[in-house]
Structure formats: structure tokens, C-alpha cells
Amino acid sequence: MTGALAPAKPLTAIDRCDRCGAQAYIRATLPVGGELLFCAHHGRQHVAALRDKGADIQDESARLSETPATAKDGER
């Protein structure tokens, strides 16, 4: 075993925050196994402490500010 982490799968709308149930945008993979999922709000509250404890953080909260693609004029 090389100790390298497997690539994290993208978070989807099915993934929910362990604190409040909102859509999760942050995954904290714990060094002892298991993971925690957080919405952006709760992620900001807990990520620093989890990182200090050795958790691997996958942060997809930048997706919240992305502008969705729109259809060209006249397309439906």
C-alpha cells in the first residue's frame, strides 16, 4: 500500500450536510476512517479544526458562485 488517497468522488445533490441536512459541498475524510459531509456554512465552521486533526478536505463550495450555462437566444 502506498498510502495515497483514492481520488474523491464529486459531491452531488444527494450528499447532505451531517449538521443540518442542506446540500453538502465539503467532504472531510478522517484519518481513522469515515467521512463527514458539510454544507458551505458548517464547513467553514469546522474545516480548520478537522484539517488540524489530519482530515483530508474536499471543498467544492466554489460551485455555489458558478454561473450556469444558458441556452442561446431562440433555443429551448
Roughly how many Å is the radius of gyration? 16 Å
Q: What integer is the average pLDDT?
A: 87
Unreliable spans are: none
Number of strands: 3
Task: Write a short abstract of this structure.
The protein is of the alpha+beta class and 76 residues long.
Please outline the helices and strands.
Elements: E1 26-29, E2 35-38, H1 40-52, E3 56-59
Antiparallel strand pairs: 1-2, 1-3
Descriptive notes:
The chain is α+β, with helices and mostly antiparallel strands. A hairpin with a 5-residue loop joins β1 and β2. The chain is elongated, with a radius of gyration of 16 Å. Strands 2-1-3 form a three-stranded antiparallel beta sheet, with helices on one face. The model has no long low-confidence stretch (mean pLDDT 87). 17% of the residues lie in helices and 16% in strands.
What are the defining features of this structure?
76 residues, elongated, 3 strands, 3-stranded antiparallel β-sheet, alpha+beta, 16% strand
